[in-house]
Amino acid sequence: MAGTFRTALKLTGLSILAIVCIQLHISINKPWYRYKLMRLQILTFLQTVMSYGSYYLYRTYKISSLWKKFAVIVIVLTHVSFFAQYMFIADNPSIVTIVPFLAFGCHVFMCLGTLCADIGTFLFIPFTMKISVAYQKFKLNFVPVCAIILTLWSFINTILPPQHSTVHVPINGLDPKLNNLHIIHLSDIHVGPTTGKVFVDWLVNEVNTYNPDVVVITGDLVDSSVKNLRNAVWNLKNFKSKYGTFYVTGNHEYYTNDVDNWLNYLRDQLGLITLHNQHHVIREGNASLCVAGIDDIQAEKMSYTDHSPDPVTATEGCPDDTPIIMLAHQPKAAKLTIKSLPRVDLVLSGHTHGGQFFPVHIPVYLANPYFAGLYKVSADTHVYVSRGLRFYGAPTRFLSYPEFTSVYLVSSQP
Q1: How far apart, in whole angstroms, are the C-alpha atoms of residue 333 and residue 218?
Q2: Mean pLDDT across the chain
Q3: Peptide bond before 359: cis, by omega within 30 degrees of 0?
Q4: Distance between CA atoms of residues 372 and 153, nearest Å
Q5: At 184, which helix (H) or strand (E)?
Q6: Cα pseudo-dihedral 187, 193, 198, 201, rounded to 10
């Protein structure tokens, strides 16, 4: 009992340190300092939470010689994973980053499975000891096997090609010349420690087979600096569409501490149309469509004062009575856009990953005004939230499959 208390005290101390980091993060108003403190904050918080889970797993499985060894390997790799994210960045991911993050996914599934099994054990208390002992033996073998199966299944879902979804969105006042305008919506590619050049090259080739009129990337494109990933994303310049490729920042671009360099690189070297609280008017004869984009709401928290999301500024100068399509990474920014503008016909967002893997769905669903898919907010306004193409952290997708979407704008007279 004394050992348990000391361990809990140490973990609580780490939690307090994480809170201190958060306070420092809030109080310092320079992006570079915020970036360093945020990294420390995230690592400390994650290591604290994972330590509770690791202690729980070790205490549970130490009585089994086989699963004790497995649990120790999973625990060690899990605690290494988020350090590997910052230390091993290349054009393509390697086993050094994939395996620790897979262990992290298995760690989560084992903790949740063990917790559910322990609740079951508690329910067996009123029954005979014989049943209870048999249940304990069953739990020690069943939960790890299930965790391994779920981890592999979820990993395979990230290897298979993303789903291609199709939605048709009615746009009031859209000129017939732009009827059935085809937008390919991409989001949350997360090029970095676990996604690289091979996937980007495949994605460009796949998107080009659909002959889109417009390609849009709604943030979280990268998880490291231009210096580390310039070659990995180079092929983005080869998207083929009638009106161009549009891009807005997500929260992870600000976590790289290199967001301005990314905007310059994507615009000047790769030819993307970067929308930094800006808009671009698509014209077909005398028909027009305003495509606007705002910075991610995380910019303010990272002290990028010139990157605050501003829907009004982004759409200022759009022709009167022209339909407006807004690119806004987070669903919260979509909600901000709808509140800020007298007219917005469609907001394209991402960020949620559709929960990525259960049970993360629950807090993600509760934290965002829109979760995944197409929402009809009013008679004239829709929001589409992509489940995203890849993942963050553990290379797992469970009950939430990656996607890219063909969005067709359908002319609808008011």
Answers
A1: 12
A2: 87
A3: yes
A4: 22
A5: strand 181-186
A6: 30
Closest by Cα among 78, 79, 96, 74 to 87: 96
- For residue 298, what pLDDT is reported? 87
The letter for the amino acid at 278 is Q
CA distance 371 to 365: 6
pLDDT band at 2 (very low <50, low <70, confident <90, very high): very low
| Least confident range of 210-224, 242-256, 292-306, 384-398 | 292-306
Alpha carbon 207 to chain centroid distance? 20
The percentage of residues in the chain with a pLDDT greater than 90, rounded to a whole number, is 63
Residue 158 CB-half CA count within 13 A: 26
Lowest mean pLDDT among 16-30, 97-111, 203-217, 347-361: 16-30
Helical (H) or strand (E) element with 44? helix 31-61
Strand partners, 324: 290
What Å distances lie between residue 285 and 53, 174, 182, 214, 288, CA to CA? Answer: 61, 13, 17, 17, 8
Q: Residue 70 contacts by C-beta under 8 Å, 6 or more apart in sequence?
A: 61, 144
Q: How many helices (H) and strands (E) does the chain have?
A: 13, 12
The first and second tokens of residue 388, run together, are 């995203």
The tokens describing 318, both together, are 């759009």
Q: Using CA atoms, how far apart are residues 134 and 371, in angstroms rounded to an integer?
A: 42
Cα separation of 249 and 277, whole Å? Answer: 10
pLDDT-derived band at 185, boundaries 50, 70, 90: very high
For CA atoms 371, 373, 379, 381, give the dihedral sign: positive
